[in-house]
Amino acid sequence: MKEFFRRNPRIGGAFMTVISLVMAKFFILDVAIAAQAHSDHVSLSMKAILFSIVFFLFGVFLLVTGPFGDNMMRAAPGSQKLSPLGWVTVFITVGLSFGGYFLFKQYIESFGYQF
Hints:
With 115 residues, the protein is an all-alpha fold. Helices cover 76% and strands 0% of the residues. The protein starts with a helix and ends in a 6-residue tail after the last helix.
């Protein structure tokens, strides 16, 4: 299966995007709806939110760029090491996901919940 996604990065991107949307439904959307309804207990999972955002960003990146983007992020074709541009992409993606988490946390706290 790993080799299949390596040969077809767009399919891998679609898979990552679908997984991220399912995670976002349970860990972001349902939490926001519960907070808006002033539920007794609302909890955030930092890891789930971060992974959801990271998977979505990388999935969309692979869907848009396909094999070109996959090769652009690698140090050499077929290599498992990241190129400098790949590392920059990873840092930007992780930074955006942390920003998204803290914005979502602030949004939930605006309803009076404390974490």
